[in-house]
Amino acid sequence: MVELQRRPGTMGRLLVVDDAPDVRRVIVNLLESEGYTAAEAATGREVAAAVADGTADLILLDIMLDGESGLEVLAAIRRTSDVPVILLTAKMEETDRVLGLRLGADDYVTKPFSGPELAARVMTVLRRYSHPSFRRETMRFGELSIDTSAREVRVDGELVETTMKEFDLLAFLASSPNQVFNREQLLARVWDSSSTWQDEGTVTEHIRRIRNKLDGRGLRCRWIRTIRGVGYRFEP
């Protein structure tokens, strides 16, 4: 079972997927030395469980797994999640690179790669997916606090684990209290995307997850309100 609890002060939670244990361990050690929390997986089933739990901020996925294709695993990820994915491969033809990018990969790295190169690629993709420039470092709304510097959400001081996009969406809405945003606007502002390229249901699903996580603290999620036929707004 993949466990990816964020450690205090780390830069993000990464899942390394490779069928070679020694390769996974080398990559995990490298990433942890760069300040990340990293876990290992060897199969598509383990990846699916981590994606369902929303515990990874980025996945490094080998394209050749034992008995299954990394591209098939990527396609399965993209059916339910927009978590960033970097493909790792010892040999990758141009057609595979193109297919991987079309399936939703954010980048690819060809083995053998250097530690600094991999760390730089990870940082670039995570930076592309993050939106750190909110108006305040910590926003407080009663028992709810959103720290945009540490990228932490707390209710009554208790940490609420969120994925990267869940945090970005909640922080974006909270940074404009009482303003209504439709799904198209949220795709553009939070995902740098549009309904032409991405299903608006992505927004709906992320709102549902945020509400469930806040509800899990024994509270009804009263901060995010659905405006029927329009979109969502944050009510402080």
How does this model look, in words?
Helices cover 39% and strands 22% of the residues. It folds into 2 domains: 13-129, Response regulator (Rossmann fold), CATH 3.40.50; 138-234, Winged helix-like DNA-binding domain superfamily/Winged helix DNA-binding domain (Arc Repressor Mutant, subunit A), CATH 1.10.10. It has a 5-stranded parallel beta sheet with strand order 2-1-3-6-7, with helices on both faces. A 4-stranded antiparallel beta sheet has the order 8-9-10-11, covered by helices on one side. The N and C termini lie far apart (38 Å). It contains 8 helices and 14 strands. The chain is of the alpha/beta class.
Brief account:
The protein has 236 residues and is an alpha/beta fold.
Detail the poorly predicted runs. 132-136
Order of helices and strands: EHEHEEEHEHEHEEEEHEHHEE
The share of residues in helices is 25-40%
Count of DSSP E strands?
14
| Average pLDDT | 83
The H-level CATH homologous superfamily of the largest domain, spelled out, is Response regulator
Please give the order of strands in the largest beta sheet.
Answer: 2-1-3-6-7
Number of H- or I-type helical stretches = 8
Shape: globular
Using only C-alpha atoms, the radius of gyration works out to 18 Å
CATH class of the largest domain: Alpha Beta
Biggest β-sheet strands, sense, barrel? 5 strands, parallel
Strand content: 15-25%
Number of domains: 2
- The name of the CATH topology of the largest domain is Rossmann fold
Instruction: Quote the distance from N terminus to C terminus.
Output: 38 Å
| Class computed from helices, strands and strand pairing | alpha/beta
The CATH architecture name of the largest domain reads: 3-Layer(aba) Sandwich
